[in-house]
Design goal:
Among the domains are: 55-131, no CATH class; 330-509, Cathepsin D, subunit A, domain 1. Helix content is 14%, strand content 32%. It is built from eight helices and 31 strands. The strands form six sheets. A six-stranded mixed β-barrel has the order 5-6-13-7-12-11. A four-stranded antiparallel sheet has the order 19-18-24-25. The chain has a four-stranded antiparallel sheet with strand order 22-23-27-26, with no helix packed on it. It binds 2-acetamido-2-deoxy-beta-D-glucopyranose (5 copies). One 2-acetamido-2-deoxy-beta-D-glucopyranose is lined by residues 494, 496, 498.
Length: 515
């Protein structure tokens, strides 16, 4: 273990050059990137994504379900027995927690920990790192423990494949009393980062203010802070990735993330997509280019929460291998065509017999999709999302005055067996690389345990948010409503971080019943 870290240390002395190095490795793809996001032939910056944070936020009090509320008719017997079955199924496919750690020696005689999980041997020296994810807020966010700095300060982080910059709360921030924050004063490996006259990032001497950082999350909400550099540790401290950029938030204006369990966000898209001056290197890029993981894969295998309580979900993010524990069949691969995002082309998208979009796409029904673990639901171009919700029985579009987080609503019972016998909702289908991927109809509903207060929607009862909401016109954002039902693999394509070698892999799950 020591030897691995020593090697990592050598590489890390040149970390700031790594930032530049990674950028220089970016190739111009021969795929029609010109069509990607911008009309003028330039791959444009994924700025449009800024607004998705706003829409994925729900007010704190919304989670506290008012059981006495008139909205809930869900205690009837049929419904209860249906749920019973649901639970039995859910428990069926969970990861068997055979997890034993043992100490062994590596080839240099250093003690290393290896462990057995999911019937497979794992070893840090093999470069496979499992990050357990927890989900206690009705699939709104899965949180992963990540350590920062010397004697790693552990924070509950959102893994976001849709953005690049990692941020945490600083002690100076607004939410410091309510969230665990990162205290740079307690870390001897911490440095502020500055940018020199030619725009290159520099390690700053103590006492030098860090480079200013800010990020706007749609109208009204902006996070402000500064950039530092420190070590990140993943998977119960098994993998340390040294000297990476990290934004420390000092204030948030407008909007609020206080209601969320997250204590920060780990950016996992490409650093090249960062709008921060001096560039950015994500931990996934760094561990890949430095050879710290066996293979340059990140697998998301997320399990959903109990539909009734919104609690008990989990799963894991695995660096270094295709986590096939719950994989049913083979992974279907498609090229990641954007140098910034985990985005590619689907073949077609359908809802029952209705064609929503089809290769090569049109201006208002584009063929592009991106995998976004930072988005709770599907955010789709407006003509597509209107068609989908139209086909869900009993759907309703709330008007803006309702003050709801999302306009598209569906009956909370959508997808439940007794309900589907009458409703017969059509199947949503995303075809990628010739393979059809669907989601259980239950997951057409987001926050199924939280019916919308009827008073806000003209007295309509037992309505919930749809998992299909309006996103940018340019691309279909495939969020957690899809990801939690599949095995999703992001592949950097090797240590060189060559854009044209990047791939997205999708697979079906053994523990999910799609029909
Ligand atoms: C880093 O920069 C911030 C903001 O400019 C400043 O408050 C802090 O004291 C600096 N930290 C160090 C270690 O120099
Ligand atoms: C922090 O928590 C306290 C009480 O627990 C609450 O009054 C306050 O509003 C919270 N602050 C923020 C920024 O959410
Ligand atoms: C998976 O791929 C292997 C090798 O290409 C093939 O033999 C097998 O039939 C595939 N399995 C499925 C379920 O498609
Ligand atoms: C995929 O789904 C489409 C649309 O529902 C259907 O026409 C096609 O036959 C399916 N393909 C496969 C291989 O199942
Ligand atoms: C990675 O880059 C190095 C240096 O440019 C080159 O020698 C090597 O062949 C590349 N490897 C791959 C797999 O492209």
């Amino acid at each position: 273990m020591k030897s691995t870290f020593a090697l990592a240390g050598l590489a890390a002395t040149a970390t700031l050059t790594t930032v530049v190095y990674a950028k220089q490795q970016l190739e111009v793809s021969h795929e029609p990137l010109s069509g990607f996001f911008a009309a003028d032939g330039t791959p444009s910056h994924p700025k449009f994504l800024a607004s998705r944070w706003e829409t994925s936020e729900l007010p704190l009090d919304f989670r506290k379900r008012d059981i006495s509320g008139a909205g809930s008719k869900r205690s009837d017997k049929a419904c209860r027995s249906e749920r019973g079955k649901q639970h039995a199924k859910d428990h069926h496919g969970q990861f068997k927690d055979r997890h034993s750690i043992r100490e062994t020696l590596d080839h240099l005689g250093n003690t290393v920990s290896s462990w057995i999980e999911g019937g497979k041997m794992h070893d840090h020296s093999m470069g496979i790192v499992i990050n357990k994810a927890t989900d206690n807020s009705a699939d709104n966010e899965w949180l992963v423990n990540v350590g920062f700095g010397t004697r790693a300060q552990k924070l509950k982080m959102v893994f976001d494949s849709g953005s690049s910059d990692t941020w945490v709360y600083s002690p100076a921030c607004c939410y410091a009393n309510n969230h665990t924050f990162f205290d740079p004063a307690r870390s001897s490996t911490y440095h502020n980062r500055t940018v020199d006259a030619s725009g290159n990032p520099q390690v700053a001497a103590a006492g030098t203010p860090g480079q200013a950082w800010s990020y706007s999350y749609g109208s009204g909400s902006t996070s402000n802070g500064y950039v530092g550099i420190d070590d990140f540790t993943f998977g119960q401290q098994r993998l340390k990735v040294e000297q990476l950029p990290l934004a420390l938030i000092t204030s948030i204006t407008g909007g609020s993330r206080a209601s969320r369990g997250m204590e920060g966000l780990v950016g996992l898209s490409s650093g090249s997509g960062s709008s921060t001056q001096g560039g950015w290197t994500t931990p996934f890029e760094a561990m890949s280019s430095r050879g710290q993981i066996a293979e340059t894969y990140l697998t998301a295998t997320l399990r959903k929460a109990d539909r009734n309580t919104g609690k008990g979900g989990g799963g894991r993010y695995t660096f270094g291998e295709i986590d096939d524990e719950l994989l049913d069949g083979n992974i279907t691969w498609t090229r990641a065509l954007s140098p910034y995002l985990w985005a590619g082309y689907f073949d077609q998208m359908t809802m029952g017999d209705t064609l929503l979009a089809k290769a090569p796409g049109t201006a208002d029904r584009p063929q592009r999709f991106m995998i976004d673990t930072g988005s709770a639901v599907f955010y789709l171009p407006s003509p597509i999302v209107a068609d989908i919700n139209n086909q869900i029985k009993g759907s309703y579009v709330a008007d803006q005055s309702s003050g709801l987080a999302f306009p598209y609503l569906v009956p909370c019972d959508t997808g439940l067996k007794h309900y589907e016998r009458k409703a017969k909702n059509p199947t949503f289908n995303l075809q990628v690389g010739g393979t059809n991927f669907t989601i259980p109809k239950e997951d057409y509903v987001f926050y199924a345990n939280e019916p919308i207060p009827p008073a806000t929607i003209g007295g309509r009862k037992n309505m919930c948010y749809s998992a299909f909401q309006t996103g940018p016109a340019q691309i279909s954002i495939i969020g957690l409503s899809f990801i939690k039902n599949h095995v999703v693999v992001l592949d950097q394509g090797g240590r060189n971080l060559t854009v044209s070698a990047r791939r997205i892999g999708l697979g079906q799950r053994k523990d999910v019943r799609y029909e």
